[in-house]
Specification:
cell cycle, WH_DNA-bd_sf, about 210 residues, single chain, 2 domains, Arc Repressor Mutant, subunit A, alpha+beta, Segregation and condensation protein B, three-stranded antiparallel β-sheet, two-stranded antiparallel ribbon, cytoplasm, 9 helices, chromosome partition, disordered C terminus
């Protein structure tokens, strides 16, 4: 191996490590070569070197080959702490924007993304996705409108998180008391009262009414 090859590998090795660490599924050599902007042969050399490094007992992770792809995995002897962590309910916090969006969904469910954004006045796609990842919101069919947008509703986990038996236990709008002791104002959820139209009465009708 030449000095240039060693220098190149030293530069690419940490990049390969980051890719494998962040990957949610095994990455094929051709994918890694494309991301690292190098050859598949160089990728194989890098994989061999990185695999040898993580074989050291000082590391809790290892590189595994799954269906010709590569990915980080926990070494079997260190699996127990991970199992305990996964099976322990995790607390999480919600941003003001997330709580506002969740409030809208809770009180107007099932509701579509366009309707949520109409109420908030801002794009809410990434917030809805985050709420789905936290399992507080789920898809509930599609609306019978143009484009048939997806409808969203709250989940059982939403009820457990906020200590509710069912949706009927939701506090009345315009406030929803959150666990973080923050009040989210949802006045926009309240449809403005539409005044009843005045009926024009002719003079003859008025006279008849008076009589």
């Amino acid at each position: 191996m030449t000095d240039l090859t060693i220098a190149t590998n030293n530069n690419l090795l940490p990049k390969l490590e980051v890719l494998l660490f962040l990957a949610r599924q095994p990455l094929l050599p051709e994918q890694l070569a494309r991301y690292l902007e190098t050859s598949e042969e160089a990728v194989q050399q890098l994989i061999t070197e990185l695999t040898a490094r993580y074989a050291d007992p000082a590391h809790g992770l290892q590189i595994v080959n799954i269906s010709d792809g590569y990915q980080f995995a926990t070494k079997p002897e260190h699996a127990r702490p991970l199992e305990l962590y996964i099976n322990t309910p995790q607390e999480f916090s919600l941003s003001t924007a997330a709580m506002e969006t969740l409030t809208i969904i809770a009180y107007r469910q099932p509701i579509s993304k366009p309707d949520i954004e109409r109420i908030r006045g801002i794009d809410s796609g990434w917030i809805i996705k985050s709420l789905q990842e936290k399992e507080l919101v789920e898809e509930k069919g599609q609306a019978d409108t143009v484009g048939r947008p997806v409808l969203y509703a709250t989940t059982e986990k939403f009820l457990r998180h906020f200590g509710l038996k069912n949706l009927q236990d939701l506090p009345p709008a315009p406030f929803l008391k959150m666990r973080e002791s923050q009040d989210i104002i949802v006045e926009k959820l309240e449809s403005p009262a539409v005044p009843e139209p005045e009926v024009a009465v002719s003079g003859g009708a008025e006279a008849a009414a008076e009589n």
